[in-house]
Design a protein that fits this description.
By secondary structure, the protein is an alpha+beta fold. It has four domains: 4-42, no CATH class; 55-116, no CATH class; 119-148, no CATH class; 152-264, Nucleotidyltransferase, domain 5 (2-Layer Sandwich). It contains nine helices and eleven strands. The protein has helices at 4-13, 35-42, 66-72, 110-117, 121-127, 141-145, 158-164, 204-219, 260-264; strands spanning 59-65, 74-78, 81-86, 89-97, 100-109, 166-172, 179-185, 191-198, 227-230, 241-243, 252-256. A hairpin with a 2-residue loop joins β2 (74-78) and β3. The longest helix is centred in the last third of the chain and has 16 residues, at 204-219.
């Protein structure tokens, strides 16, 4: 169901009051900007129950003779876990009962898991782990380059930004899909993406006002405390420009950036 209006119209037509009058939305996970995520997850649509699963939840428990299993099984290691494979079927040992192993037998082919586990992180977290987001398949600097090793595991608190990090913001204006990313540079020169936002059908003025509010409420930062970078197109790419924030008496200088991603998405590992 692509349009929120269609869902609302169907809901309004369900006039019969009965305990079986329920609707079922069965879908792959969508980006957090999609109306389904906003309506049912973020805003908490009344009487909604979300049933989430991943490809790793697709298994049954079985008992396997230990001797025969050891003779046939080939070990496979991924993400600090040990699996075993027989005839393209993946098993995970979870217990023992006398001469038998208690194991998870995954219903999807082992070759499918292997292929998914070696795709880029953005694709894998959606298609394999069932997380909300977009699986940008086959292209893009971020999705084709970075893996879990580039994920920053620590927590950066708003109070830390003022003393321990240098903060940058990147903005790509556009009515249909304005984009924002907030980056912290630590003392070792590592660039850490700490916040991001993708707008939808939002004017530049509205998007700027929302960013100012987000910086203030979420990160305790004033817009003037951040070094801003904008994505200038075409002949303007060699210029600097000034972006004015409504309600501020001052303006902040935004440096041009020909390729925003080359600066912002830097590997976090040593």
């Amino acid at each position: 169901m692509k349009r929120e209006e269609a869902f609302d119209e169907v809901s309004q037509r369900m006039r019969l009051v009965h305990k079986f009058s329920k609707g079922l939305l069965n879908l792959n996970t969508v980006p957090e900007t999609h109306w389904i995520y906003r309506k049912f997850i973020k805003d908490g649509y009344p009487q909604t129950k979300v049933i989430k699963s991943s490809s790793y939840d697709n298994y049954i428990k079985v008992k396997l003779p230990i001797k025969q299993f050891k003779d046939k099984a080939q070990p496979y290691y991924y993400d600090d876990k040990e699996y075993f494979v027989i005839d393209n079927i993946r098993y995970e040992i979870i217990g023992k009962d006398g001469d038998f192993y208690i194991a998870k037998r995954y219903n999807l082919a082992h070759s499918f898991y292997v292929e998914m586990e070696h795709r880029n992180y953005a694709f894998k977290r959606v298609m394999l782990l069932g997380e909300w987001g977009s699986a940008y398949i086959d292209d893009g600097l971020y999705t084709s380059t970075f893996t879990e090793d580039n994920v920053f595991k620590s927590v950066i608190l708003p109070k830390d930004l003022q003393y321990l990090y240098r903060v940058y913001a990147g903005v790509d204006f556009g009515f249909r899909r304005p984009a924002f990313v907030l980056v912290a540079e630590d003392e070792w020169g590592r660039y850490i993406v700490i916040d991001e936002l993708l707008g939808e059908n939002t004017s530049s003025v509205q998007f700027i006002d929302y960013l100012r509010k987000r910086l203030r409420e979420k990160w305790k930062l004033d817009a003037l405390e951040v070094e801003w970078y904008g994505d200038i197109a075409g002949r303007q790419k060699s210029q600097s420009f000034v972006c004015t924030y409504r309600g501020l008496k001052q303006t902040c200088l935004c440096h041009t950036l020909v390729n925003l991603h080359c600066v912002l998405f830097v590997p976090i590992g040593d």
